[in-house]
Amino acid sequence: MNSKKNEQPFAAVILSKAHDKKEANQIFTDKVQLRPLFLTPTSPPPSDAREVRRRRAQQKKQAARKRLKPKPLSSSQRRELGLYDVPREGQKYALFEPLHNLWLGYIREILGNEIYTGGEGAASKLCSADFHGAEVEVVRSGCVSRVGIMGIVIKDSKFAFEIITKKNVLKLVPKEGTVFRFRVPVQNQQQTETTKAEGNTGSGQQTDEKMEGLETTATTTTAPPDKPPPSMVFEIHGEQFRFRPTDRATRKFRAHFSKRL
Amino acid sequence: MLPFSPPSVYQTSKCFATHGKMGHLVPNQVPSKSKPWTTFASQDFIHRADLIIPQEVFEMVREALINAPAPQYKRVVMSLADIIEPDFMGKYIKSGSIAMLSEGRMGVDNVFTLRQGILTMYLDKAAYEQTGIVGKPHGAKGDRGLKPRWVVEIDLNSASMSPGKKGFNRLVYAAKNALGQPLRWLLYHLADSTPTPDPLVKHNPTTFTVNPSISQNLNTSVPDLKIAIDTNMPKARAKEDFEDISTEFYEWLSLVRLQSPRIQPRDQINHYLCRYQVPGDNIQEQKLCKISWHGFLPPWWARQTLVDILTTLPSKTWFSLSTTTFSKGLSGDNAECTILRLPDSGGEYLLWEVKSHE
Q1: Residue B6 maps to a domain
Q2: For the whole prediction, is pTM greater than 0.80?
Q3: What Pfam families would the database entry show (chain B) (predicted)?
């Protein structure tokens, strides 16, 4: 123990072998005993403005993501889970007919008297209406094979309508470049000569409306069986309608020129 | 709507001249593979036809062509839905050879033609998108975004075009919704095979007879109808020479068809007003006869007439038959086919085919 205390440190011994005494002492004190020990190599952070901004944006994003708990599903996850798929037993036209009747009641309630007159007021109401359960027919389309698809709307998503046809086939019809025609039969107590009212809407390119007139010679209370009941027919240009129903409710539609037409 | 008009490409009509030799005609067999016959068969419906022959052979032609039963065509107002009715389809389209043309100009309106069972619809963009049957773009290529036109071809003779099948149902749907308006049609059907009871009767067709109009004893100066191209010349020179000769003959033939006074023998027009001269040095004076038909005739009528002429006339005489089709497109140019058989040549002919811009 005594020998250990009196012994010089190993570094000093080696240094004294290479340098003379004064120098060895100096080197030993500067570079060995008082050697600076860096705790974190990159601190403090660089004071570059770009770096500062980048860090701040990253922190903000992480904070936002932290707020969305639980995290929303990605599209592939959604597809895998199949939450919005209609099961095979559920793909029946007959199942959705009550929904269609509900929709008819809803639309008649919304339109009120404008079901007879058509026009701008009806157009704006229809633009914000919901179309789940509507009977739709594809009338014109850039992809010609879609023309003639007719059925009840099951799902109204941002870019497409999911339609179930009378033959119990589920069809997904994109809204782009397609014109859809909807028909709302008018409930009458007695038949009167209804006039055609051409819809001259402010949201001009979005909806076109027509009234189908039915002429009778005498006042009858029931419709002749072979003629379709009088109804309000309107067409929607899918190009201008590519919004989710929730977003559409509050949207103000403006007339847009369409290159396709 | 948009401030500028859709693009239109105007191309001038092109004329293709052919110099060839016809083979012998086998009786009862209409040739269909070689050059003058394919050209006549590829035409659309014929509007006018002219036949020019020397007066001497008129009598021979009279029995064959003029005393034969004249072709008839009908004009009727129908819609597309009437045409694809099972009654009409079974009796006329599937069994017989019927040719129909609807009203309208091809580049502007929606025009339908029915020929050998193939229904061709020339539609604009709105009508095409509402019809729902797949077709091909029609017209000048390039810049297709602005209102192109479309052609839809449907073979009504095929087995898939019967009531109940999917393809046919699409056509029925289109005829009911998008193409439902009644149009005037010109209809040609062989008179001897009219079905009974006739499904056309309820549409009240008007029948027209195409009687040939004859102009006889036209005094004309006829050039030497001979093509003499020196085969020792270089090819480019020979081609130019042929172009000159064929253009001169075609010009002379057109003037004969118009019965122009410029080709009369003693024409005394001031050369400041007209510089035309009958081509060649050896100009003879002959009497010619011109027979013309004006109506709605299918292209196989032209082929049949050509066969009749070839079998009737002696092989040494010359003749010229020209057929003009209905015009297509905005400019109204017609397509035309003219054949001139040279005299004493053993079947040598010149054929001009004028193709209009589609």
Answers
A1: no
A2: no
A3: Ribonuc_P_40
